[in-house]
Amino acid sequence: MKAIVVKKTDHTPTYHDAQLVDVPKPELVEDGQALVEINAVSFNHREYWIRKGQYPGIVFGSILGADGVGRITDIKSEHPKHRVGDRVIIMPSTGWYKDPRGPEEAYYIRGGSHATGVFAEYHVAQQDDIFKAPEHLTDAEAAALPLAGLTAYRAVFTKGQVTQGQNVLITGIGGGVALMALAFCVAAGANVYVTSSDQGKILKAMRLGARGGVNYKDDKWGTHLERLAGGEQFDVVIDGAGGDGVKVFTKVLRLGGIIVSYGMTVKPKVDYTMAAVLRNIEIRGSTMGSRQELEQMLAFVTKHRLRPVVSQIWQGLESSEEAFEVMKNGSQFGKLVLSLKTSSKL
């Protein structure tokens, strides 16, 4: 079968190859496994960081990709939970089942790691790591959902404890996680505000339910944010940027406010000061989520008929380099998807 694998290179600056190669089609060897023919896959910034050599535990020669949707073509189980022909998504990681604090076992995100990825024509996974794709989603939307949806769901509800009527700030709108967090918070009845350096992305977010947004490159963006919120303080910040934003968060958050950090794309540290301590502001790290949280997320998406935002779709695994180039320049608003099936429900 065809698959995209990560190959180590000596490029300066570091940028490893993502090569389309022929590899053996996977076989079912353990009880409880299912073979999925992949219809569509989507990109996360994780694949880009792997190519830049900035992600831990890279396994060179392994298949990339954590997000995909497809149809089950074979099952090896005396007690199957699914049926051949079911349209399914795959849990984007292994080793985390239901503990809300963290993984119970050795934990790997699929793709470029010890857990093989889904950027391939076929993928084998345990039945327990396979879930029916929400019926209202297209293949492109379903492929865009797992990692971003799970990360956002845990950040918003498990860690952020967002509820109706709260004021929530989501930073860096336009990425997959931030957009899913926006959808979840709006569906929960929260008042959502966003940040971006692109006014066009702020306007798009407002069409998706945000109350307003500010440009984080403006020196006084915290003051502008307070004015937008009518002087009301914020309950929760969902942050994927890191860096100096915590100084502003400390000023705009209520006493006991929560900062959920699911990434640090701007700077890999935050400046948590005594001022935050005195205001009882908490920083809660949050990455991905458990199998149980994925199940809860899918139920929430189905109940509220939510749809991931898809920025662009290409045909075939051979188009992956084009998608990487779009991700590199950061112009996308939503997820980047490759369709592997010309007849798939896009």
TrEMBL record:
The chain crosses the membrane at residues 168-194. It comes from Mortierella polycephala. Keywords: Membrane, Transmembrane, Transmembrane helix. It comes from the Eukaryota. Coiled coil: none annotated. Pfam families: ADH_N (PF08240), ADH_zinc_N (PF00107). SMART domains: PKS_ER. The keyword Transmembrane applies. One of its GO terms (molecular function) is oxidoreductase activity. Residues 8-338 form the Enoyl reductase (ER) domain. The keyword Transmembrane applies. InterPro entries: ADH-like_C, ADH-like_N, ER, GroES-like_sf, NAD(P)-bd_dom_sf, Zinc_ADH-like. Gene3D superfamilies: Medium-chain alcohol dehydrogenases, catalytic domain (3.90.180.10), NAD(P)-binding Rossmann-like Domain (3.40.50.720). This is Enoyl reductase (ER) domain-containing protein.
